[in-house]
Amino acid sequence: MNRIPSRRLIGAAVGTLLLAASAVWAGTAGAPRANAAVPTFPNVVVPAPVSATANGATFTLGSTATISADAADVGNYLAGVLRRSTGYPLPVSAGGSGTIQLLLSGAPASVGSQGYQLTVTGTGVVLQANQAAGLFAGVQTLLQLFPAAVASPTVAAGPWTVPGGTVLDYPRFTYRGAMLDVARHFFTVAQVEHYIDEIAGYKVNYLHLHLSDDQGWRIAINSWPNLATYGGSTQVGGGPGGYYTQADYSAIVAYAASRYITVVPEIDMPGHTNAALASYAQLNCNGVAPKLYTGTSVGFSSLCVSLNLTYTFVDQVVGELAALTPGPYIHIGGDEASSTTASDYATFINRAQQIVAAHGKTVIGWHDVAKATPLPSTVAQFWDTNTSNAPLAAAVASGTTVIMSPANHAYLDMKYSHKTKLGQTWAGLIEVNTAYGWNPGAYVSGVGESSVRGVEAPLWTETIVTSADIDYMAFPRLPAIAELGWSPWSTHNVTAFDARLGAQGPRWKIMGVNYYHSTQIAWPTGS
Ligand code: TNX
User: Fold this and answer.
1) In degrees rounded to 5, what are phi and psi of residue 11?
2) Overall pTM > 0.85
3) What is the 411 CA–ligand 1 centroid distance (Å)?
4) Cβ–Cβ under 8 Å, residues 95 and 107
5) Could you tell which of 266, 460, 464, 477 is best to mutate to test the pocket of ligand 1, judged by most ligand atoms within 8 Å of the CB?
6) pLDDT in tens, the chain (527 residues)
7) Are strands 116-120 and 125-128 parallel, antiparallel or unpaired?
8) 449 is catalytic
């Protein structure tokens, strides 16, 4: 297949890209076609849709356009984005037939609860889904089909064209996550919300917040107030740290929900607990509180497994967190507990699982929890660099399901190359095509497609301090992991993916996303 035409097109002026895209590809199942007689769909959407068929028409959004929406929040979200860049009034109505219609009727059953069908003709846009989450996902596709200037935070020049055709789309996996470690360095509510907006564009539907670690405890717990006020008072490098009040945390949860993203809170236990142990002497086996820690070592702390108070602590912390968490999951960490004996580890994890279940939530734990006795409902998050793990395969055989975050592909804190200033290298260097180059449904022996709930891209923040740092490590790799979670494996094609990813460059430029300009991608000139 000849990818050169698509690269040239992406290099063309942004405004003409979509109009000129007819030579690019057919859009279905990753099979590029170059048949001038058949209108083809532009290869610009990340994650790749299940299928896309062009009709040769072009829709142009005009200044008198209207939006009608069966889900008012999604209509208002779309109008909000389009008003910023077009400057058009774009009134949103509940019923009627807007120029852009968002309908909770008429979608094929095959798109399920998260998918959608998008039809673009010369005169309008009809988006249909079974649930509002599907409309939100379809809106992201629609926005990517507009010229890149649609992402501008201020009024920009049109014309606001969309290539005509039909997209039928739904996710491969139900869980597509991003993790932000707010413990090693603290990030404010506004910074987290900014990241939520960035990841929502790639159909990520879970945000896992790593809320506690050796260096900091970041969520106020009313029954153990020192956790946040003392345990949250520093971070890696000795800065001031910080924590979320329960109102702050609820604001993040609500903001995420407005982008159809569910927050997964993590309290890491029994290791990675120095901040908690420093806050309460009585949680320590020897009754002595350690000092706060601002370094980057792992594996030196452990809750005291033999102490009854430990389980009161876990119960009260999980209880308050569960009450603040509308989502189904509480993440209990469980990784790298090298200061806990194997038998203490199993005892602790088994009890912690029961506590989470008693508060009505489903456990997620790093895959280390497979060394205990995971409940069939417990979800293991795989983070290793190996492709075989006997305890995990055994747990999966008993019903445990898995979120895939192999550190050598999905860890956003790994450097891209030796030249990358931020990040670490323990799991290897991860260029964008390495992030993309694995199959989550066939990666770990004994963990097949039907046992995989989805994927997650974790961003650990030992070396990450600002939002610009977050951007640099997440983009362009986060979209690669998001595509592995959403798109059918039949679309997996590195050349086509690289071209789609290149089309995101002008959008990130306009949005001010500080992305890494990987030389593996032909970024359009000026982006
Ligand atoms: C390992 S992988 C960790 C984190 C570190 C990260 C740095 C895992 C579950 N734990 O504690 O921040 O490496 O890359």
Assistant:
1) -75, -10
2) yes
3) 9
4) no
5) 460
6) 233 333 333 333 333 333 333 323 334 444 444 445 678 889 999 999 999 999 999 999 999 999 999 999 999 999 999 999 999 999 999 987 999 999 999 999 999 999 999 999 999 999 999 999 999 999 999 999 999 999 999 999 999 999 999 999 999 999 999 999 999 999 999 999 999 999 999 999 999 999 999 999 999 999 999 999 999 999 999 999 999 999 999 999 999 999 999 999 999 999 999 999 999 999 999 999 999 999 999 999 999 999 999 999 999 999 999 999 999 999 999 999 899 999 999 999 999 999 999 999 999 999 999 999 999 999 999 999 999 999 999 999 999 999 999 999 999 999 999 999 999 999 999 999 999 999 999 999 999 999 999 999 999 999 999 999 999 999 999 999 999 999 999 999 999 999 999 999 999 999 999 999 999 999 999 99
7) antiparallel
8) no
Contact present, 367 and 384 (Cβ < 8 Å): yes
Among 80, 86, 124, which residue's Cα sits nearest to residue 102? 124
Catalytic residue among 193, 336, 431, 449: 336
Q: Is 168 helix (H, G, I), strand (E, B) or coil?
A: strand
Q: Using the atom order of ligand 1, give the atom closest to the CA of residue 460.
A: 12
- What distance in angstroms lies between residue 317's CA and the mean position of ligand 1's atoms? 22
Which ligand 1 atom is nearest residue 296's CA?
12
Ligand 1 interacting residues, C-beta cut-off 6 A: 298, 335-336, 366, 383, 407, 411, 413, 424, 460, 462
- Return the sign of the alpha-carbon dihedral for residues 99, 102, 106, 107: positive
Distance 225 CA to ligand 1 centre (A): 26
Q: In what order do the strands lie in the sheet with 160-169?
A: 51-61, 160-169, 116-120, 125-128, 100-103, 67-69, 92-93
CA separation for the pair 113, 115 (Å, rounded): 6
How many Å lie between the centroid of ligand 1 and the Cα of residue 11? 38
Ligand 1 nearest atom to the CA of residue 335, by list position: 9
Residue nearest to atom 8 of ligand 1 (CA): 335
Find the 160 Cα to ligand 1 centroid distance in Å. Answer: 44
Identify the bridge partners of residue 454 per DSSP, sorted by sequence position.
175, 403
Quote the tokens at residue 197: 């907006």
b/e code 325-357 from CB counts within 10 Å (16+ = b): bebebbbbbbbbbebbeeebbbbbbebbbebbb
